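User: I'm putting together notes for a lab meeting next week and I want to include a structural view of one of the chains we've been expressing. I don't have a solved structure, so I'd like a prediction I can at least talk through. The sequence is below, exactly as it appears in our construct file.
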Amino acid sequence: MASEYGLKRHFNGEAARLIGGKVRAVHPEFDIEGYAAEVEQRIPGKELKDRVLVLTEGLRTRLPEDYPTAVAVLVSILGDELAEGEGMFNTSWFLMPVARFVEEYGRNHPEVSLDAIEEITRRHTGEYAIRPFVEDHYAMTMKRVERWAHSPSHNVRRLASEGIRPRLPWARTLDVFVKDPQPVLEILEPLRSDPSEYVRKSVANNLNDISKDTPDIALATALRWLEESPTPETNWIVKHALRTLVKKGDQQALAMLGATGGELAHVSDLRVTPGVVAVGDSLVIDFTVENADDRAHSVTVDYVVHHVRRNGRSIPKVFKLTTLELAAGERRVVRKTHALKEVQTRRYYAGEHVVEIQVNGLVKATERFDLRT
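Assistant: Thanks for the context. Below is the predicted structure for the 373-residue chain, given as structure tokens.
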């Protein structure tokens, strides 16, 4: 497994021994080596979430059959709460199977499970584990989430937001909040100027989720927050929460963030070099932005690459570039190097690719390059 990469490579027999050692300290009959051997046998070919499930299932068969007793054993091994800035994937990544244990086996014990999720999130995260309880025990769970939003723990406050994000990545979509985000917004209200960056990132991501399905509600909420809570923390949240709408060129979102004059901006001399490039190489994008108005403007400049897919169609991807403060009639040269390296979330295909320059979400210039694979 030497070629494995990413977080999944950690979930193997050694992870089972790490978890098993902690469990045996409070549950002496736990079979560490049997657990590790089962994990090693079952993980080949599996990705991260399936590997975590293997470790979770191994815990279930080796812990007491009574769920409350079993989960109490796991809660007892959690350790100290993470301080602000301590990354859960660096410090407590091995607790992912513990959170998954509650997610998989705790639905019929909501009170016990919600207690466990609160403890887990102080050391790791409960953002995935809580979602089945939103679906199966809505009133009870939302009452608990409301309490969490006022917790002195930044980790617990963050869970109040992250756990009910309508479109949390790598998690089931919470359709109830896609259709009506108002219950989510009520939870976010006391967090809109939170002192913790960890919490603020979650609040921004949550409002960004809402903007994808109900942009009018997200915009109205952002505007109200800026008016009622004129703090640097709220400004930061709103800026990051509106990023999807900004990339789409929503003029209200751009104006809310201070971007003006996009319709009066000109882009000229766009060059994308080299014209033929291979995967793994880089492009250089050069152009000039001009403010053609007789007053100053702040403009947001992005570029869009239309990636060719296997079927020959193209999918646009917006890349943030810069914000320019332009005086009346001012011209500014912009240069960007764009790497064409394959990553886990993007595979390249040969063909003609289109590059667009956007100013305040409005396409101002277009150029092309040929990608060879």
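A couple of points you could mention at the meeting. The beta strands are 265-273, 276-278, 282-291, 297-308, 314-326, 331-339, 351-359, 362-372. The chain has a mean pLDDT of 94.

User: Perfect, that's what I needed.
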